[in-house]
């Protein structure tokens, strides 16, 4: 599918395997999510626009490339997406941070919004929406909808694990959005959990049940 990128880097796959292990504790899980996000972000941000600026080195003055335009915005889908925010900020410390709060109805599995706050001038920024899991695709689709309604045009979506059903739904709803997945899993079960997956990412990041 156009604009869909499934990561195959050995380091990403190795760390995802560690995430899947049910014996991986909260502290290690949290660190792994951040590390995977950095590795994925490095690839997802390879098309950032740059412009030559003049600087003075210890040897001479030269023109050298730096990121141009408005700083990008990282937008986590609450709450699990918070685990990937520092990944992007590690790569681009000046990035602005927005938040989209969604919860999934336990019966219909459809998303419901409870909070949305985005940086100003979102129409001039590259928006990177982050959520570790792309399951049904409902929350991801809604998050992109919110960003677009507030003027967002250049949008990327990053997830660590995706189900085919969710990936298909997000791509069909927003074919212009670049989607980066750490791994594409087999399917959703009857409770809309990704299989084999890794459980509830939010619970494992924050140590809740």
From TrEMBL:
Regulation of protein activity: Allosterically activated by GTP.
Residues reported to bind uracil: 194, 199-201
Lineage: superkingdom: Bacteria
Sites where the protein binds 5-phospho-alpha-D-ribose 1-diphosphate: 79, 104, 131-139, 200
This protein's record includes keyword Transferase: yes
GO molecular function, one term: uracil phosphoribosyltransferase activity
Pathway: Pyrimidine metabolism; UMP biosynthesis via salvage pathway; UMP from uracil: step 1/1
Protein name, as recorded: Uracil phosphoribosyltransferase
Species for this entry: Blautia difficilis
Encoding gene per record: upp
